[in-house]
Amino acid sequence: MSNISIALSLADSHCHIGIDCTDSDIDALADQFNNGLVDKDDFFHIMTTYHLDVGFVDRLLSQLKSSVVVAYFGVHPWYSHLFSTEDHGDVDLLQLKKLHYNKVLVPAPSEDLLSVLPVPISLEEHMTKLERLIEIHGHKFKCGIGEIGLDKLFRVPSNGYFGSQLAQNNGATKLSSCKVSMEHQTAVFDRQLQLANKLKKHISVHCVKAHGLLYDIIPRYTSISSVILHSYSGSSDQAKRWITTYKGKKSKLFFSFSNWINGTDNKRCLLEDIIGYAEDNQILVETDVSVDDYLVRGKHEDYFLHLEGIFEKVGTILGRDQDEMVELLRRNMCRSIE
Ligand SMILES: [Zn+2]
């Protein structure tokens, strides 16, 4: 098999729609998917992260003739500050912004940052919208909850959020000193876990430097069908704890590896450790890139190389041949979304 044909036989367990995406990019993507870019069902597991990419995924799903996409609906921790968990009653919009962002950002935002931050979105209304989309598209596409999670290092960009139309100088993203309080991140995360639990869906989880807290929260939700730790960056001891905790449980556990985060040389030992501890049926591969950035811009080979790169590394560590690996990973992917 050539390299690309290997990648075409796999599945991408975690990818995105880019922040520069447009409606016509989505239409072009739908064309490619409808014209048989890949002939496998459930190939592209596309995350949503905030209020804007949800619209793009909805638009994409509405045009697809086959179920080549698995859709994930959620609020990423990098956007959690845009959502309010409280009903502030009858205050004017400026006052509402001030109240909300002063509460969820640490330190409180400067006047400049506050001026570019949007009026907060009601988390409850957003969750209702996501649930509705799952209801509509769930007949044809497998749906999960994602990308959700916790991020202790994230700082709010000085234009308010990644993808804000208030573009920054020369497109470079400057970061403010404001972080989103862990209390707020946890509240937003928790609310989404409740939805996943209620709908018995799988979740794709992001975590940076908050692995202890994440591990304290997720196992409480016992009806989530699969917990997929994407581009896992915790310690190998923490990974071991996850594996032990989920042994024999109804909810399944997966580690999804990307080439650019988990496949680098300095992460080789961690990758070997986790694959060593995990069962073979807990391993997935992903690109964690924005599919439109590659596929609409003619960079197909580069896209598939992301998948092929991590495929080879995982295969080498497991000591399995290509055909076995293709079969294993495809089977694992199917298990992760049942
Ligand atoms: Zn991601």
Describe this structure in words.
The chain is α/β, with parallel strands linked by helices. It has one domain: Metal-dependent hydrolases (TIM Barrel), CATH 3.20.20. It contains 14 helices and 12 strands. The strands form 3 sheets. An 8-stranded parallel β-sheet has the order 1-2-3-7-9-10-11-12, sandwiched between helices. It has a two-stranded parallel sheet with strand order 4-6. It has a two-stranded antiparallel sheet with strand order 5-8. Helix 2 links the parallel strand 1 and strand 2. Helix 9 runs parallel beside helix 11. The longest helix is centred in the C-terminal third of the chain and has 19 residues. The model has no long low-confidence stretch (mean pLDDT 95). The structure holds zinc ion. The site of zinc ion (ZN) has 6 residues, from loops. It holds the Pfam family TatD_DNase. One of its GO terms (molecular function) is hydrolase activity, acting on ester bonds. Keywords: Metal-binding.
Can you lay out the helices and strands and say which pair or pack?
Blueprint: H1 3-8, E1 12-15, H2 23-34, E2 44-46, H3 51-63, E3 69-73, E4 83-84, H4 93-104, E5 105-106, H5 111-116, E6 121-122, H6 123-137, E7 143-151, E8 179-180, H7 182-199, E9 203-208, H8 211-217, E10 226-230, H9 236-246, E11 252-258, H10 259-262, H11 268-277, E12 283-286, H12 291-295, H13 300-318, H14 322-336
Parallel strand pairs: 1-2, 2-3, 3-7, 4-6, 7-9, 9-10, 10-11, 11-12
Antiparallel strand pairs: 5-8
Helix pairs in contact: 2-3, 3-6, 9-11
The structure holds zinc ion.
